[in-house]
Amino acid sequence: MISDSGSGSEKRHAGDDGRRSRDDVVHRGPVQLRGERALESTTMDQRLLDRRGPTDWVHTDPWRVLRIQSEFVEGFGALAEVPRAVAVFGSARTPLDDPQYEDARALGAALAEAGYAVITGGGPGAMEAANRGASETGGFSIGLGIELPFEQSLNEWVDLGLNFRYFFARKTMFVKYSQAFVCMPGGFGTLDELFEAMTLVQTGKITRFPIVLYGSEYWSGLLDWLRSAMVREGKISPADFDLLTVADSAEDAVRIIVEAHRGEDEDELYGEETPW
Asked: What angle do CA 74, 79, 85 make, to 5 degrees?
């Protein structure tokens, strides 16, 4: 999820000479760095995808594979016993005094009251609000963070938190351990999760998976474009457009999700693991 803190946050903690204080701490996955060791601004994802520079990087990829594997092992282990859950996405830039913050907070509370755990990207803004609503209601509040060039720690309302180096490992956890997605107003990160979920449902990779857009006014432009361009030109079918449902209240969003899963018990929601 994109944060509004920007790369300038690296400089705010440095002195005039660019040196870091011993009080500054940077996290790189499970590793904590302090002081001068925290000056590096690139991330694991960036170094994996960056093709520039010498070709000796090919000799380090086996180690990256092991690191990637460890993220899946840690994620599966930590989330295996999570009850049915809903992932809530939205802008990290949503301020506390924005009505959208209160909407996300109410949504988190309503999901918790309906028996769902709430999973977010663990950041500030709408993510924090959803975690907060769930936590304040006594629900299970989960945050799946990501290493970014600028620091973004998990918000204080997360009960179970995991930090990932690689986006694709984190994305797998969202899809595997959620039974629905709710997209609050957001930016590129929210759109990324939205269209990935739509693609997975469209191609039959995941089933019984409601996708809810919260806020008809915010999402109306996107929906109009999908109808007027993609559906009209046959790039998607009308049935694909029906994968999306719009809600304007926490109660409506939860009702849509509950009705989609009506008659299904926990085993049916989780499905069966394919034996090795």
From this structure: 150
